[in-house]
Design a protein that fits this description.
By secondary structure, the protein is α+β, with helices and mostly antiparallel strands. The protein folds into three domains: 82 residues, Orthogonal Bundle (Arc Repressor Mutant, subunit A); 80 residues, SH3 type barrels (Roll); 70 residues, no CATH class. Helix content is 28%, strand content 24%. It has eight helices and twelve strands. The strands form three sheets. A five-stranded antiparallel β-sheet has the order 7-6-5-4-8, covered by helices on one side. Helix 1 packs across helix 3 and helix 2 crosses helix 3. It is elongated and about 75 Å long. The termini are far apart. The relative contact order is 0.09.
Length: 282
């Protein structure tokens, strides 16, 4: 009885999920896989495999000559949601994108196109984060691309946002008496946080959400549009999602929605983003 697997136990559940992942991605699993990873007996490994077969009938078939269980073409997963990243990590030995653009190893089966990171100094990040955490003002020296100059201004950080490439701090700007986004990597210096500050005006653009509907660019031909629909997993020819109003432009830029006649992008807005129901985060 000691080798009977109880699927309600956490440790057994972990082993059963392991069986499913290995069978799904590699196509086969055997008792030695369980023994090597979890340090259990052969009898216990056999018990786990039989329990999995009872939980997911038809998913595995035993190959006597190869002494292994092989997954069927129609296998479905019942214990986890498969993700390609887990297969890459477990079977190809890859863990994370290379930290430097174009730094893939020769002979590797996996590579990542990683844009150069735009990062602020650790001191700037620390001071801005503490100002956010403790609701305080902080003086910064900020470089602006629009004005091609730097300026010293005082801000009160309220939130952090990532646009897919870099971090922004959403803050009350005392110079302009309103909320603005500041790219952390453009902050040359941030002083130690000063006095406490709580804005009396709500940041509507941060708190409000918009429902966005994207469709394939209508200048593409029908076959191209169908390809885009499949690529983004669209339903009814539309891609719908919700985004903060303050993050909308970053999101659309990341998806390259703004196209030109010479080089149209894959996606375009079906119409103006609409306020989402229950749009306040409060």
């Amino acid at each position: 009885m000691g080798n009977v697997s109880n699927p309600d136990q956490w440790a057994v559940r972990e082993r059963l999920a392991f069986v499913e992942r290995v069978a799904w991605w590699r196509g086969s699993v055997n008792r030695s896989d369980l023994r090597d990873v979890f340090g259990i007996s052969t009898a216990q490994a056999s018990g786990d495999l039989h329990v999995y077969l009872e939980m997911n009938p038809g998913s595995l078939a035993y190959n006597g000559s190869a002494k292994r269980y092989e997954s069927s073409a129609g296998m479905t997963c019942v214990l986890h949601q498969p993700r390609l990243e887990e297969a890459i990590r477990q079977f190809l030995g890859e863990t994370a994108p290379a930290p430097v653009f174009g730094a893939g190893e020769p002979g590797s089966l996996v590579d990542h196109s990683v844009a150069p990171m735009r990062k602020a100094s650790a001191v700037v990040e620390r001071h801005v984060f503490q100002a956010l955490l403790h609701h305080r003002r902080v003086r910064i020296r900020y470089w602006s691309v629009r004005s091609s100059r730097n300026s010293v201004r005082e801000i009160a950080p309220q939130a952090l946002g990532h646009d897919g490439y870099r971090w922004h701090v959403r803050a009350w700007c005392f110079e302009e008496s309103g909320y603005k986004d500041f790219v952390l990597s453009r902050i040359e210096r941030a002083e130690w946080p000063g006095a406490a500050f709580h804005p009396e005006v709500r940041d509507a653009a941060w708190e409000n959400f918009l429902d966005v509907v994207l469709v394939p660019n209508q200048t593409l031909d029908e076959a191209q549009r169908r390809t885009i629909e499949r690529d983004y997993g669209m339903e009814g020819g539309q891609l719908r999602f919700r985004v903060r109003e303050a993050m909308l432009e970053y999101c659309l830029g990341h998806l390259r929605v703004r196209g030109t006649a010479e080089r149209p992008d894959h996606l375009e807005l079906a119409g103006p983003p609409a306020p989402a129901s229950g749009r306040s985060t409060r």
